[in-house]
């Protein structure tokens, strides 16, 4: 007998960090700002952004960085400042700042990606690997994006 699991045992779907209303609001923001992204993919992006924010906020000084797609979700969340501030306080216990970083060599970016994925997995969240092929080069921020525990 074979049993198929949607996600590995021992991981949490990061969408459980968000209320249905906030998840829907953020999904709509992603699809409005990026019409090339389907609603299903936008929802997955929002979930991974929630996992990233929760993990990076709980592990300051780790210099974690989102993928380009996950950063789309983070940007959408930051635009909803009330929802974002409440999420940060409830889940992390402090505000998680979105801070641009200087351009990093590809090797450092790959290391940041691996460090980030390992941290998210260690925090117990499921990882949607299709959304993590890279680390963001956040053109809206003029460079890459990271969390900042210092501000």
Question: Mind explaining what this structure looks like?
Answer:
- There is one protein chain.
- The protein has about 150 residues and is mostly helical.
- It has one domain.
- Helix content is about 50%, strand content about 5%.
- The chain has helices spanning about 20-35, 40-60, 70-80, 80-90, 105-120, and strands spanning about 95-100, 145-150.
- A two-stranded antiparallel sheet has the order 1-2.
- The longest helix is centred in the first third of the chain and has 20 residues, at about 40-60.
- The radius of gyration is 15 Å and the shape is globular.
- The model is unreliable at about 1-10 and about 140-145 (pLDDT under 50).
Mean pLDDT across the residues is 84
Q: How many structurally independent domains?
A: 1
Strands, total number:
2
How far the N terminus sits from the C terminus, by CA atoms, comes to 53 Å
Order of helices and strands: HHHHEHE
Largest sheet: 2 strands, antiparallel
Given as residue ranges, the uncertain stretches (5+ residues, pLDDT < 50) are 1-9, 138-146
**How many whole angstroms does the radius of gyration measure?**
15 Å
The global form is globular
Q: In terms of structural class, how would the helical and strand content be classed? A: mainly alpha
Helix content: 40-55%
* Strand percentage: 5-15%
- Enumerate how many helices there are, as a single number: 5
């Amino acid at each position: 007998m074979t049993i198929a699991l949607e996600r590995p045992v021992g991981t949490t779907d990061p969408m459980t960090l968000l209320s249905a209303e906030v998840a829907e609001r953020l999904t709509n923001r992603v699809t409005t700002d990026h019409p090339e992204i389907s609603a299903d993919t936008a929802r997955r992006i929002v979930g991974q952004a929630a996992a990233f924010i929760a993990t990076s906020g709980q592990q300051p000084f780790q210099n974690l960085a989102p993928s380009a797609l996950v950063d789309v979700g983070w940007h959408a969340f930051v635009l909803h400042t009330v929802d974002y501030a409440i999420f940060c306080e409830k889940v992390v216990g402090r505000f998680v700042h979105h801070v641009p970083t200087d351009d990093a060599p590809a090797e450092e970016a790959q290391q940041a990606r691996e460090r980030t994925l390992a941290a998210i997995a260690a925090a117990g969240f499921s990882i949607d690997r299709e959304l993590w092929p890279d680390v963001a080069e956040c053109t809206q921020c003029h460079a890459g994006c990271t969390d900042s525990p210092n501000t």
